[in-house]
Amino acid sequence: MKKTIAFFDAKPYDKIWFDQLVNDRYDIRYLESKCNSDTAALAKGCEAVCAFVNDDLSAATIERLYENGVRVLAMRSAGYSNVDFKAAYGKINVVRVPAYSPYAVAEHAMALLLTLNRKVHKAYNRTRDFNFSLSGLIGTDLHGKTAGVIGTGKIGQVFINICKGFGMRVLAYDPYPIPDASFEYVDLPTLLRESDVISLHCPLTEQTHHILDVNAFRQMKKEAFIINTSRGALIDSAALLAALNLKRIGGAGLDVYEEEADIFFEDYSGEIIQDDVLSLLTSRPNVIITSHQAFLTDEALRNIADVTLKNLDAYFAGEDLENEICYHCDSGKVAGGCRKTRKERCFQAPPIDLRSTDTDSFRN
Ligand code: NAI
Fold first, then answer.
1. 231 annotated active-site
2. Structural contact between residues 214 and 239, judged by C-beta atoms closer than 8 angstroms
3. pLDDT tens-digit series, residues 293-351
4. CATH number, domain at 216?
5. Which contiguous run of DSSP H or E holds residue 164?
6. Average pLDDT over residues 57-80
7. pTM of the entire structure?
8. Are residues 77 and 155 in the same domain?
9. Whose CA is nearest to atom 23 of ligand 1?
């Protein structure tokens, strides 16, 4: 029998490639709601859940999904800071798409930087109003400037190559440096002090939460541009706003925001946003905000659909789960690490107890 996937927070652009690649092997139940403890019941009768970055996959949600018979959570994202892995361990296997297009995200980071630096956002609005004045549009050459890259994984490395193409000097900070790198690793204070552009490409963890805080902003050059395409909570948003107000930094290009979960991906143009920090950041001429769209290229969407469906194929075929991640393999939080060697499963979830499940409501 065909398995059913509860696909939360579904948007028209998600459906394009999932519908093309699913080849009739799954029923996909597209749900507009975000996944949370209230909406988890919508997954009843589905064997799998597919979720994205702003779904709330807290312990309460995981428990409700488990009670409703879900045994696999397929994240259609690389980041997974919204999943409570401790709650999922032993109950729901979590798979993800580790890389779908580092180019998409790195190129968007550079797009934010170029827009901010050359004030393209202002010029665009001016010329639409037939205002061809150049006053206030002075930028700087990126050539010869220093880019500070925090996190030198897949996306960070692509961004570094782009910066080098612009003739920039690159400094990097990463607790796990890559050997024989073609750029210079420095400690974080040196990077903060010497960089003209600081771009965040590390995951959100306990160590990186508010990695850019009041203290960090104090160490930066007053012209420094901050680019964040990783996760909102890497930056203390209130401290960023204060640094901008005090002209301690030059500007910020943000594709992610600390409190984005209930705001980004939706149209609130007719409403009053109740987040004053976001409202004030948005109003600043030297801040560009995009709505977590760095991943949004055709190539990335295709890869996301392809890898997510293949992850589910492997799960339901009882095969090894190359792209699984669990509490024990997530950043070594637990001594001993994950039992998984390379490709196996992190654990076997208990079977669904059909006696305790309302089977009549399945597949309606
Ligand atoms: P990756 O896993 O390849 O690289 C992450 C790097 O961060 C690793 O080299 C790691 O050693 C480093 N890192 C870990 N802790 C660190 C710390 N305390 N300080 C500095 N560096 C640290 O991940 P990838 O694919 O490059 O993605 C990076 C981030 O980009 C993801 O975690 C995700 O949050 C974000 N992302 C955003 C998207 C968007 O649409 N805006 C789309 C995809 C990913």
1. yes
2. yes
3. 999 999 999 999 999 999 999 999 999 999 999 888 754 444 445 656 556 788 888 87
4. 3.40.50.720
5. helix 154-165
6. 96
7. 0.90
8. no
9. 153
